[in-house]
Design goal:
Alpha-Beta Plaits, 5 strands, globular
Length: 139
């Protein structure tokens, strides 16, 4: 079933020049990028993006990190796009992610793990609306 999802290159991935490599991996997998945006997100946008983690010990650091520089967000479409993108990205802890996944190959830590990907179609739609809105930051 064709789905759409969101994939975000976090500030560490942008800073390290990994945007092109991540796009290449998505396209080589046969997925289609239908929208791409570089944005300097506001803290409010990031707080909303990670609202499911509010109150957790890492939440404040994550918000600060994610609003520390530009991010590159893309809408990705394809058959079971949510699961396929999450497979490309790998587990959250890059130190435990298998080689061949984006995080396994490039993540430096749990927080600086290069990418964010939605975990469901419902969450993807919420995050797409949020990150691609004018209120998320400035391009």
């Amino acid at each position: 079933m064709t789905e759409r999802t969101i994939l975000i290159v976090k500030p560490d991935g942008v800073r390290r020049g990994l945007v092109g490599e991540i796009i290449r991996r998505v396209e080589r997998k046969g997925l289609k990028i239908t929208r791409l945006r570089m944005v300097y997100p506001t803290e409010k946008c990031i707080e909303s993006l990670y609202d499911v983690h509010k109150g957790k010990p890492f939440y404040e650091d994550l918000v600060r990190f994610m609003s520390s520089g530009p991010i590159v967000a893309m809408i990705v479409e394809g058959d079971e796009a949510v699961n396929v993108v999450r497979g490309l990205v790998g587990p959250t802890d890059g130190r435990k992610a298998p080689p061949g996944t984006i995080r396994g190959d490039y993540a430096l830590s749990m927080r600086e793990n290069v990418t964010h990907a939605a975990d469901s179609t419902e969450r993807a739609e919420y995050e797409i609306e949020l990150v691609f809105s004018d209120s998320c930051g400035f391009s």
